[in-house]
């Protein structure tokens, strides 16, 4: 990027790497600290509705961070101009865990720190009814202080279409085994601990897997909790790393043409400030008499004065990615005045509908995340020969919308896992297990119901059970 260019005040430093949904580049923020720029892959944004999903998921990340989730990459803004979209973060996107795993290994204690922190962050994400969908060493960033941050949660969930709690559990288990093989290669007891945690994550959830690591810390190196070895590894990488990946493109325009996408154009200034964004600039004041609102800038959220009324970044919000793929010099000539009036009216209706839909979606996402407070399994009637027993469970929640994942554990049978989507206002959710029992004799059978996510404040799954008698 040429000298003097910046993106919303972020000045790229040159160090970059490939990410899951685009290209990461370290950048100096306006206050002089080191942050990050994720240039979102244009191909990923080409799918219908991708822009809207991206805005919604990034906004969800910001709500989690404001709510106290410290293990997510802190997001400053999501901006766009002329068909390019950038995620601005308060921390650099390097080094990733993948980059560190390619160099000298710290110790097994460092691996345990990363696994415990990523598990804790995923538990908070799942408790909010969300998922990552692309967890692997390339989407875990290690800070200078040795903290593990999950990166690209929102973009991955929005653009890849693979986010689920089950996928996250399997990915975390793979991460645990991979770190055990690389950072505990000379420590068999620690390697077995990581394997045990990986198996526990798949069968009993991340809360139980995290507890396995905490309870097994006696096999880890003395003093590992200071993170000294992990910090040293990051410092060594910083001293030797060279830029990789393709560079972030220059915006090729004045700073004022970059538009934030995090809010609908009519979002109030106090809401923006509450979310950590600057209020509207002065050029978004009410229009002078006789001047259309769009021409005066009152309908768009922008950085700086002198912005054209219809920037391409605004089109991303209003009309979708596909309208930005035609260069300006290839666009068809403007229609005659009469047609322009009809098109302008139709465009206004479309813009209004999009804004209303976006505002309704964002409003529906407000409120507390889904939380489960109790689980109850009702005792079924005794069963006779070769019958189907219907076991009913009740999951009590705080009434928020979200997803609840649970499993039935019938005696002598494989676990039966399920994920249900709950609507807002539904505080009691019934789940059932149809259990076919057969054979001769009399025996007591137990059906155990365990909620995997969201989990309680302790991180442990909530569960209950009921026993019935089978007699034939």
* Domain module count: 3
**Order of strands across the main sheet:** 1-2-3-5-4-8
The CATH architecture of the largest domain can be named as Orthogonal Bundle
Alpha-carbon Rg, integer: 26 Å
Largest sheet: 6 strands, antiparallel
Descriptors:
single chain; alpha+beta; Transferase(Phosphotransferase), domain 1; Immunoglobulin-like; 3 domains; transmembrane
How would you explain this protein's 3D organization?
The chain has helices at 42-45, 50-66, 97-101, 108-127, 153-159, 165-183, 188-204, 206-215, 228-240, 269-274, 293-296, 312-319, 337-364; strands spanning 11-18, 22-28, 34-40, 75-81, 84-89, 140-142, 148-150, 259-260, 372-378, 387-397, 402-410, 416-422, 428-437, 442-453, 462-471. α6 (165-183) runs antiparallel to α7 (188-204). It folds into 3 domains: 1-252, Orthogonal Bundle (Transferase(Phosphotransferase), domain 1), CATH 1.10.510; 255-364, no CATH class; 372-471, Immunoglobulins (Immunoglobulin-like). A 6-stranded antiparallel beta sheet has the order 1-2-3-5-4-8. The chain is an alpha+beta fold and 472 residues long. The N and C termini lie far apart (79 Å). It is built from 13 helices and 15 strands.
SSE inventory with pairings:
Elements: E1 11-18, E2 22-28, E3 34-40, H1 42-45, H2 50-66, E4 75-81, E5 84-89, H3 97-101, H4 108-127, E6 140-142, E7 148-150, H5 153-159, H6 165-183, H7 188-204, H8 206-215, H9 228-240, E8 259-260, H10 269-274, H11 293-296, H12 312-319, H13 337-364, E9 372-378, E10 387-397, E11 402-410, E12 416-422, E13 428-437, E14 442-453, E15 462-471
């Amino acid at each position: 990027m040429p000298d003097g260019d910046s993106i919303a005040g972020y000045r790229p430093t040159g160090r970059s790497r490939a990410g899951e949904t685009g290209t990461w580049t370290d950048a100096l923020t306006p206050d002089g600290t080191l942050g990050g720029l994720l240039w979102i892959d244009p191909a990923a944004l080409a799918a219908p509705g991708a822009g809207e999903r991206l805005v919604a998921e990034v906004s969800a990340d910001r709500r989690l961070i404001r709510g106290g989730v410290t293990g997510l990459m802190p997001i400053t803004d999501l901006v766009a101009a002329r068909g390019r979209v950038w995620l601005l973060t308060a921390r650099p996107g390097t080094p990733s865990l993948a980059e560190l795993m390619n160099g000298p290994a710290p110790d097994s204690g460092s691996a345990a720190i990363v696994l415990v922190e990523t598990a804790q962050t995923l538990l908070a994400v799942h408790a909010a009814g969300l998922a990552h969908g692309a967890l692997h060493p390339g989407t875990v960033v290690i800070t200078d202080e040795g903290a593990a941050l999950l990166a690209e949660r929102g973009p991955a969930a929005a653009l890849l279409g693979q986010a689920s709690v089950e996928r996250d559990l399997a990915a975390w288990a793979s991460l645990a085994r991979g770190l055990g093989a690389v950072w505990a290669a000379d420590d068999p007891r620690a390697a077995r601990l990581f394997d045990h945690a990986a198996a526990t994550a798949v069968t009993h959830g991340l809360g139980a897997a995290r507890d396995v690591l905490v309870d097994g810390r006696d096999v880890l190196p003395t003093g590992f909790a200071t993170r000294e070895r992990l910090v040293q590894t990051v410092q060594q990488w910083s001293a030797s790393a060279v830029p990789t990946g393709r560079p972030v493109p220059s915006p090729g325009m004045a700073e004022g043409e970059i538009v934030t996408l995090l809010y609908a154009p009519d979002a109030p200034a106090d809401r923006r400030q509450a979310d950590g964004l600057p209020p509207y600039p002065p050029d978004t004041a009410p229009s002078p008499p006789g001047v259309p609102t769009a021409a005066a800038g009152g309908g768009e959220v922008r950085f700086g004065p002198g912005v054209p009324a219809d920037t391409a970044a605004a089109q991303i919000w209003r009309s979708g990615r596909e309208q930005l793929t035609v260069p300006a010099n290839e666009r068809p000539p403007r229609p005659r005045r009469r047609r322009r009036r009809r098109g302008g009216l139709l465009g206004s209706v479309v813009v209004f509908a999009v804004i209303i839909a976006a505002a309704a979606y964002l409003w529906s996402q407000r409120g507390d995340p889904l939380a489960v407070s109790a689980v109850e399994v009702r005792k079924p009637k005794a069963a006779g020969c070769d019958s189907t027993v219907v076991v009913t469970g009740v999951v009590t929640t705080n009434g928020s919308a979200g997803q609840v994942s649970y499993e039935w554990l019938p005696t002598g049978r494989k676990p039966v896992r399920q994920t249900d989507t709950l609507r807002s206002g539904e505080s009691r959710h019934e789940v059932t297990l149809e259990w076919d029992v057969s054979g001769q004799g009399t025996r007591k059978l137990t059906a155990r119901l365990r909620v995997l996510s969201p989990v309680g404040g302790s991180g442990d799954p909530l569960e209950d059970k009921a026993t019935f008698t089978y007699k034939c």
